[in-house]
From TrEMBL:
Every Rhodanese domain range: 127-194
UniProt xrefs under CDD domains: RHOD_YceA
Domain of life from the UniProt record: Eukaryota
Lineage: Eukaryota, Metazoa, Ecdysozoa, Nematoda, Chromadorea
PANTHER family, A to Z: RHODANESE-LIKE DOMAIN-CONTAINING PROTEIN 7-RELATED (PTHR43268:SF3), THIOSULFATE SULFURTRANSFERASE/RHODANESE-LIKE DOMAIN-CONTAINING PROTEIN 2 (PTHR43268)
Matches recorded under Pfam families: Rhodanese, UPF0176_N
Organism for this UniProt entry: Panagrolaimus superbus
Name this polypeptide is given: Rhodanese domain-containing protein
């Protein structure tokens, strides 16, 4: 059995983050000092990334992120796993227009977003014959596996999702819709865009 040596943190946070550029250098330095590798994306709409390092290094990074004034008030979505080998080759802290690229101006999950469904309520929701289930992941992710009856938008990138919604808006309006993705970030933006 492989012993886990690295802590992996997948995280995102939608926030009003106007001074995001000022955090590129300090985050890069902190990660370098702690041997953390992976990617962090910073944008005016928040932060997104997956990083790996020692438990103490990741703890220090998360404490730094949680102390950033623009992010402190928000709920940072954070998931941990472990790895026996370092899964990333280098550390990148990138400045972007969006933390998950949809390419539509003005989408703000802090202002308008779908209802969150607790895990224990999910099966009842998707078992309801009046629910339309949409897989917001890309086509290669859908091919790996999905929920029974889920609609495949056949998108190669998330940037294609808004056009799919517009093409099917008439079929979707007024219906109960459930969306899912890999870590939650695409669902937040997809529901913010597709609020009917």
């Amino acid at each position: 059995m492989c012993e886990a040596h690295f802590t992996v943190a997948a995280l995102y946070c939608f926030a009003r983050f106007p001074d995001f550029e000022a955090y590129q250098a300090p985050l890069t330095e902190l990660c370098d000092q702690n041997g953390i590798k992976g990617t962090l994306l910073l944008a005016a709409e928040g932060l997104n990334g997956t990083v790996a390092g020692t438990q103490s290094g990741i703890t220090a990074l998360i404490a730094f992120i949680e102390a950033i004034p623009a992010l402190r008030e928000q709920n940072i979505e954070l998931k941990y796993s472990t790895a026996s080998q370092m899964p990333f080759n280098r550390m990148k802290v990138r400045l972007k227009k969006e933390i998950v690229t949809m390419g539509v101006e003005g989408i703000d999950p802090l202002q308008s977003v779908g209802a969150y469904v607790q895990p224990e309520e999910w099966n009842a929701l998707i078992d309801d014959e009046n629910t339309i289930l949409i897989d917001t992941r890309n086509d290669y992710e859908y091919a790996i596996g999905t929920f029974k009856g889920a609609i495949d938008p056949k998108t190669k990138t998330f940037r294609e999702f808004p056009q799919w919604v517009e093409d099917h808006r008439g079929d979707l309006e007024g219906k109960k819709i459930a969306m899912f993705c890999t870590g939650g970030i695409r669902c937040e933006k997809a529901t913010a865009f597709a609020v009917f």
